[in-house]
Amino acid sequence: MMKLIFEITKEDRRSVRLPMSTIPSFNIPKEYARGQRPHLPEVSKIDLVRHYTALSLRTHGVDNGFYPLGSCTMKYNPKVNEKTASLVGFTNIHPLQSAQETQGALELMYDLKTMLCEITGMYDMTMQPAAGAHGEWTGLMMMKKYHEMRGDTQKRVILVPDSAHGTNPASAHVAGFDVKSIPSAADGGVDLEALRDAVGDDTAGLMLTNPNTLGIFESRIVEMAKIVHEAGGLLYYDGANLNAIMGQVRPGDMGFDVIHLNLHKTFSTPHGGGGPGSGPVGCAKRLAQFLPTPNVEKKGDTYFLQHDNEDSIGSVKSFYGHFLTLVRAYTYILSLGADGLSDASRIAVLNANYMMARLKDTYTVPFNGLCMHEFVMTAQKLKEETGISAMDVAKALLDEGIHPPTVYFPLIVKEAMMVEPTETESIETLDHACDVLLSIARIAKEDPQQLHDAPVTTVISRLDEVEAARNPILRYSISL
After folding, report:
1. Could you tell me the pTM of the whole model?
2. 219 CB-side CA count, 13 A
3. Overall fold of domain 80-335
């Protein structure tokens, strides 16, 4: 078993020698001083390098394996994005510098929001929100302010499809709204009759992603927008699935009033890992006055931060958001251009339909027709025949070096497996993944216990997930 860095520490070993401090010494008052030295790791440089290299080899990511995590768009992050974000002109600026000293950064943010508005069909946009869910909350607070300014204080209900991302109802609750679920129709889209029955004087808006979480394009979106707008509500677009339609159709043209974008999904900035994210929020003209402040504006050839907006919901993030993440997205858009972005969405849809066509006769696809960038299949029939569940399939994929798809989501499909191959994978990778999934289905009929035991080649074998959830061990005890 691999030891923690605290367990390989040896007193007085060093990885680096720091220069003597030039700062005058200061006697810390006794009441603020430690009673003993902090327990920090002390290791040689080679031990430090080996430790973190070993940790990195245990981490699965898009750089070392297929990652078809449905709804998460785990696409390859081009290294040119990282090179651009590491330029000293970007890394050495400070958010407290004046606008005169940071014209280049302000220009980048202004141009980025202009491009994102063009891609989405929005009027204006803020770069502040730190992630997608943060963007959801920001957009909902703008919707709330819009209704309050109009005196429509009775509009307290947000409609959310039953196939929606879990963050949608959660964000609505945090923003102070009540949530009403709208069922799906037989084709996987929103049930229009149920939507008509649900809207009323209390309807503040509808949260929706298109294509939806089932990977199906909501072809009745114009009629849905009409139903909500006629009730005085607004349409919120969850940008999680924009990768399927960028360059093809724009949410603003579908009737959406507010949108958040996941730059780590559609625009290829780093995804997950606890690092800085970005969830820009765009809006139609009638909501622009409620955008967070400050916002980057342009007058003549000069860029500046607009602070004076009395109708704004206020600042939602320190300074102006995560700037270097914006640099990465800006680089990605400029690298691909309009034609490249359009090609990316087409290939993402092609890859998903290719995999679905190869797998649908073995793993049931609950909704007929073409999918968009992702598709949902179910292991329900396999489970009934062999006892092998979606979780068993997911664990078996780990033994083949493939990250499992999203399982048991959306909740409206039993034994769901949601697959999103993205546009950055080759046909050879897709064929290998399909071959593995088909092989797992055969093993399920011949030797199901082998799959119940999976994974067997990973550092940690299958966990007791019920025990881990009910009695989590969140702290590691170290003998000093």
Report:
1. 0.92
2. 8
3. Aspartate Aminotransferase; domain 2 (3.40.640)
